[in-house]
Amino acid sequence: MLFGIEWDTSSEWAFAVSILPILLIGMWVTIQATVLGFFVAMVLGLILAVLKAAPLRIVSWPARALTEFIRDTPLLIQLFFLYYVLPEYGIILPAFLTGALALGVQYSAYTSEVYRAGLEAILSGQREAARALNLSSVRTFTHVILPQAIPRIIPALGNYLVSIMKDVPVLSVVTVLEMLNVAKIIGDRTFDYMVPLSMVGGLYLIMTLVASAGVRYLDVMLPKRGFPLR
Amino acid sequence: MSDPIIKFDKVVKRFGNFTVLNELDFEVGTGEKVTIIGPSGSGKSTVLRILMTLENINEGVVYVGGEPLWHERKNGALIPASEAHLRKMREQLGMVFQQFNLFPHMTVRRNLTEAPVRVLGLSKSEARNRADELLEMVGLTDQADKFPNQLSGGQQQRVGIARALAMRPKVMLFDEPTSALDPELVGEVLNVIRRLATEHDLTMLLVTHEMQFARQVSDRVCFFDKGRIVEQGVPDQLFTNPREERTREFLKAVLESEA
Ligand SMILES: Nc1ncnc2c1ncn2[C@@H]1O[C@H](COP(=O)(O)OP(=O)(O)O)[C@@H](O)[C@H]1O
Ligand SMILES: [Mg+2]
Are A133 and B109 an interchain contact pair (Cβ–Cβ within 8 Å)? Predict the structure, then answer.
């Protein structure tokens, strides 16, 4: 029994059917961790990208160093750091939040590069035209650069959504009951790993296929020349 | 010549070790139409880009309307200009780019109203009226709701001209406005510029390789080479009877490439 749901071991099929609702609860946790981690990665990545582009070296250099550090160390290190070190400073977060945060931090290193590339891809001619027309730098960013950059940025960010989803099982080491952890607990208790693990594989396949299709759909639907302003 | 609206005083511009402009002295009178010709790499665009505040200078002073452009006066001395000063100075200048540089995500009309509303503080309807007048002037009334990539190159450049004019500049800078166009589209753009030159008291500074056109519209033609003015004069004199050997060679090469 897990989450108050009993399993039926009379046959393989009955077993599979009975543990499906349990796995779906784990899947819901996986989806939540993915979405939250992705959100953190999007916001933190944008902040890092802006800092890295700062003209002042004392601002850009730490942001660069942090990005490089995050990118060159395993996700587990960030996770352990947040899980075991933060409480020493009185910051105690639930395992789930800590895990999602660690995912977000890890992937912010990648998304910051997506933003940077997307923003730099807007040709200098656009900035020069905006300057010649005396548009303020804020207005230039929000109404000239961003509307053209976002359609390039979103699909590239979307690819990381799928990657984050596939990294969620790492959170099991800090006791988060995401889908793979749930399957492992079922296996531990029933001595049947084959069925729950196969089912997790199948469910993962469905999730990633759906997410990938969503990203591809976005890519097709987004206006290539930028979000139209009339 | 009346008081010059533009004055370069011993201006030096370098890119790294490479000196593009070497103590350039250059003046344009109010309302004057001046064409700059010269081989590629001679610094023609750099002159316009310095005026449009897209490129800073290393030495010397540039004056626009008697005020230093890249400097501010403080206690009698000239100090590097603040962004606020540049913004104020920029109001007097408009630029038309070789590659148009229209905003691709804005409709033609929005390209023309964005800056007047945001920068000059016009109401939406005022800006719209101004845009529609300018579109009529450049013959694009029926294209107002389209996006730039739905227009031909010639139409896009006419939008580029209208967009710059919408800010009511005193000086218009044209950097090879027809060089990116297919030959059959050049005429429609030159016609718009010609009308501007003949019907308005705008000061115009034009870089072009269209010698015939330069001859028709300019009060003065300057031949640039290696960041210096080799020769300048009224078009008839410069084109038919150049004093400098270098000018003669250049004009001959251009005529041969056109033939
Ligand atoms: N941003 C830049 N960095 C380095 N060199 C430049 C830059 N812009 C222009 N130059 C160089 O300065 C010279 C003059 O350029 P430009 O004014 O564009 O010439 P023109 O418009 O007459 O062809 C060229 O040799 C060019 O390579
Ligand atoms: Mg040039």
Answer: no
